[in-house]
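Quiz preparation item.
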């Protein structure tokens, strides 16, 4: 099979083609696994964190944790799917199922959590395997390319929105407007039709896109919005938006940081934190850690019910490096997806 392989980490500015197109032996499913012929795989900012070493993967590794394809073969104990059925594989590859976190439904916090495309090979390939228990049915309303970003950008956006505690009629801020945020904007319109949406983004194109999707206001990261916010979801890799978001919250407001890692380039922005202005009056900060199977499956259900589909840009598998570099340089409108053929 063909795959895009990461063999070492390093900054993209020093090595703009970190992935190498290789031929590898076809994988075989273990007893509880499905063998999937991958047709599409989303490109995620988390992969930049892996490539650049902020979240080092197990090398060498095939990246990709938003994979969609069809079941090609099944292990002898795999159940719940049929040959030819469409399935998706998300960031959560496995969890122990036995610890307190798993038993209470927080498998995303499991100490034995394994991530697709980090701890095991992922979907930047023509074939991959996954436990049947961690595969997800794809609703028929989505094409493979449409479904791929829903598995991470959508699911983590859904989890982030739940963690804000937003009520209908409230004011939500989105900092950054890439794959996850644009799906959150669409979900907000469905679940909270009276909510007001303010978007902060450095790119004028992203701000225009946010207004197209129903944002009431869109401005640069440092601009003052028309009103203070009940909640903010930060999807950026930087620290400045965190500081600015805290300043714009209402008393009792909550900032949800939807980022698996932050870059160090503007870490000094944290020195601007001023307790009375940024943190006092019961403001809260909550991070988002991974996703659970529930997040993925519930968002797929909601998205199918509401007709929520991502705006996508498609690339051939061998153009994965170009897609990643464009993502790094913030050439974004919606989500980027690799096609295997």
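Solution:
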């Amino acid at each position: 099979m063909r795959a895009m392989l990461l063999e070492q980490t390093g900054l993209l500015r020093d090595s703009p083609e970190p992935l190498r197109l290789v031929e590898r032996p076809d994988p075989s499913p273990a007893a509880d696994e499905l063998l999937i012929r991958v047709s599409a795989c989303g490109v995620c900012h988390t992969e930049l964190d892996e490539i650049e070493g902020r979240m080092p993967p197990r090398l060498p590794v095939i990246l990709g944790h938003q994979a969609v394809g069809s079941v090609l073969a099944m292990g002898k104990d795999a159940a719940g799917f049929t040959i030819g059925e469409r399935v998706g594989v998300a960031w959560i590859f496995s969890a122990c199922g036995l610890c307190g976190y798993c038993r209470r439904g927080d498998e995303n916090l499991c100490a034995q959590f394994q991530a697709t495309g980090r701890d095991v090979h992922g979907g930047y390939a023509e074939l991959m395997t996954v436990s049947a228990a961690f595969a997800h049915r794809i609703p028929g309303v989505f094409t493979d390319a449409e479904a791929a970003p829903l598995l991470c950008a959508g699911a983590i956006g859904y989890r982030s929105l739940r963690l804000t505690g937003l009520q209908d009629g409230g004011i939500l801020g989105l900092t950054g407007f890439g794959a996850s945020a644009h799906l959150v904007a669409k979900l907000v319109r469905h679940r909270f039709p009276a909510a007001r949406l303010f978007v902060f983004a450095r790119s004028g194109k992203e701000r225009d896109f946010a207004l197209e999707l129903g944002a009431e206001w869109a401005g640069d990261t440092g601009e003052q919005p028309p009103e203070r916010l009940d909640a903010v979801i930060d999807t950026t890799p930087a620290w400045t938006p965190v500081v600015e978001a805290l300043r714009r919250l209402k008393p009792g407001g909550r900032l949800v940081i939807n980022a698996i890692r932050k870059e160090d380039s503007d870490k000094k922005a944290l020195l601007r934190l001023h307790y009375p202005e940024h943190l006092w009056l019961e403001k809260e900060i909550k991070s988002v850690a991974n996703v659970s199977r529930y997040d993925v499956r519930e968002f797929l259900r909601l998205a199918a019910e509401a007709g929520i589909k991502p705006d996508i840009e498609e690339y051939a598998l061998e153009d994965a490096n170009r897609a990643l570099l464009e993502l790094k340089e913030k050439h974004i409108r919606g989500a980027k997806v690799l096609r295997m053929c």
